[in-house]
Design a protein that fits this description.
2 domains, mainly alpha, 10 helices
Length: 207
């Protein structure tokens, strides 16, 4: 889900197509901060000239745009999946949370960068606007679940949405690929912890 990336998928030096360029650029942005990263820094990390980078993109801002849009496009694909399904709102909400965890794990560097933008540039402000739209969709699902009686009535919908994705987003701080924990395992744990507490079920009698 690289947005407009495919339109510029030209090759320069062997081994450095646009996909590889984005992978490395995202890592440098995370380490140094977007504003603290220069094209010279990217050139050194990649081991190619700045002109080779410009073969693929117009500049650093385009690298940022393509990177955050990769994460955003993947998240919005999740809510598009939800919009095409029927069933109880609580089940659709759980699907969105589960798939969002999987997106985060699968595209960890790109989602990490997205969560660290602060709105200091036009591209960052556009990314934040799309994040707010995603949050609004999730909050609406929480309200629907509350209206149908599936969520405990003593939990505020807006707060519930923030807490759910606070849990999801915290994964970027501790999850490390290659340590034996798969995306599905993380998604199972998050949804069990979150939705066992949210669902408005009637406790089974103790015999």
């Amino acid at each position: 889900m690289q947005g407009n990336a495919g339109q510029r998928n030209r090759r320069g030096r062997p081994g450095y197509d646009l996909g590889r360029l984005l992978d490395v650029s995202v890592q440098v942005f995370i380490e140094r901060g977007y504003e603290g990263t220069s094209m010279e820094d990217l050139s050194h990390r990649l081991g190619i000239s700045k002109s080779a980078i410009y073969h693929h993109v117009a500049g650093k801002d385009e690298l940022l745009r393509l990177s955050v849009n990769r994460a955003l496009d993947a998240l919005f694909a999740v809510v598009e999946e939800e919009a095409s399904t029927t069933g109880k709102a609580i089940d659709r909400l759980e699907h969105v949370v589960r798939r969002s965890v999987e997106v985060l794990v699968e595209d960890l560097p790109f989602v990490t960068l997205l969560l660290r933008v602060r709105g200091n540039t036009r591209i960052e402000r556009q990314a934040l606007a799309r994040r707010r739209e995603f949050d609004r969709i999730v909050s609406d699902l929480v309200r629907q679940a509350e209206a149908e009686g599936s969520i405990r009535p003593d939990v505020d919908p807006a707060l519930t949405s923030r807490l759910l994705f606070g849990m999801v987003n915290s994964i970027i701080e501790w999850y490390r690929p290659g340590r034996g924990v798969r995306a599905g395992q993380v998604a199972d744990a998050v949804t069990k912890i979150a939705f066992d507490g949210l669902r408005n079920g009637v406790a089974e009698p103790v015999e």
